[in-house]
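notes to self, project folder thing:

trying the whole complex as one job this time. last attempt i did each chain seperately and stitching them together was a nightmare. two parts in total, labels are on each line so i dont mix them up again. if this works i'll redo the older ones the same way
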Amino acid sequence: MEAYDRVCMARAKGRATSMSYIKNLFDSFVEMHGDRRVSDDKAIVSGIAKFDGKPVTVIGIEKGVTTKERVERNFGSVHPDGYRKALRQMKLAEKFLRPVICFVDTAGAYCGIEAEERGQGQAIAENLMEMMTLKVPIISIFIGEGGSGGALALAVADRVWMLENAIYSVISPEGCASILWKDATKVREASECLKLTADDLLKLNIIEKVIPEFSGNQDKVYEALKENLRTELSLLKGMTEEEMLAARYERFRKF
Amino acid sequence: MKFLFKKPANKLESYGKHTKVASPDVPDDMCIVCPSCQKQIFTSDVNDNLNVCTNCGHHFRINARQRLNIICDEGTFVEMDAEMVTEKNLDFPNYKKKLNQAQLESAEHEAVICGVAKIHGQDTAIFVMDPYFMMGTMGSVVGEKITRLFETATEQGLSVIGFTVSGGARMQEGILSLMQMAKTSAAVKKHSDAGLLYITVLTDPTTGGVTASFAMEGDIILSEPKALIGFAGPRVIEQTIRQKLPNGFQRAEFLLDKGFVDLIVNRKDQKEILGKLLSLHRKENA
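result (full assembly):
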């Protein structure tokens, strides 16, 4: 399969969004809204749930399913308010000693007047810094698109996993093609150059795991994720805070 | 010599390039057109005025060495990792060629210069990005040099002063350039948690992955007048929202108004302000 085919699959309509993962992996999810500054960014879904009977904080970028919902959720393009909403939940997780599970699915942080006015760059930068020393385990799972800094702002984690057909890239293949060849239609070539597939990124040590998609059998995907979460959360919980934070620093220091 | 009088095709990106070098072989009567006030001004006057327009105060872009000369006490700058270059990540189409070209044109190895220096007699670590090296984009070398600077500063208990100018992450290094955002932020956080001071000075333009990481992580954020500062570039935003952007959008004064910059400082006052801020944060003064 060519890289561009994965790009199309990652963006395909009908692909499971963060909400489905939250529903199928966790129990008693209670949603929490707002950044306590400006607004409630609906491109981010966040709250507390139970995994194997233990509380966890769950944060997901949600693209929405129906057209109406997709518009409401800004197609999963997050404003600074959304990154601050996520950080607020992470800080609560730290206070109450819950691990954080993030689901990433975004074409990128939103590019618009209000996003810039409210400090898109500053909001992302703050998340990168704060997540680096958050005292509880963080696991980030790329379920669809992982667009640049807007994805990284939820992926400074102890473990980063990608679904088989998810992508993660510094720039969209369209953007890359138009800069490189002044021709946005050369997306196939650009997709290859960017090494944005889960397999490529595993080879580059950017991620720890590729989660198989079982040819679209979502139930099996949820089972596989549960299994991996169980193992890795208990591994991370077995580490002291210092060990975990030192390993997290090293995880990103090596690049 | 005709190019000296030509108006730049794209104001955002091309101005200031012809004032890059004040070499002795440029005749004194050579003129340039200020992109801000459109007046013809003598190149030599601009050079003598720290590359600021003598008529309207427009701050031309300058290279990293020029900045170090303006900011550091004479003869005190000691460079670190001066010759670091990337040997991997070179398979992206034309990247190697572009790098070589940038190295020749800028006479630098990479898009940031790091080291330690004195400002008004006070020790500090300092990094200065260079707009003439692939538009100051951040690849693995830029990220590594800045990370090492912060690690050294943390070990030695030094403040860090950083001058940013960047088009963002360096696309040609793919995902590894994105990882530099996390890597540098990690080093900034360690430095910060050690109780040390970090001041950024945002210069024109500071955008993309650099804005979304170390540029916006300063304890104190200063800016040069009128500098373009943003996450997304203005053209990308216009394409996204299909709307003309308001005047002054994403300029330093706009960010000051919105609360994202502490102070706008003219180039001629920067050394004094930085010296003052360093002195106000000296442990023995507390």
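what i see at first glance: Strands of chain A lie at 27-32, 44-51, 54-61, 100-106, 138-146, 159-163, 209-211.
need to look closer tmrw
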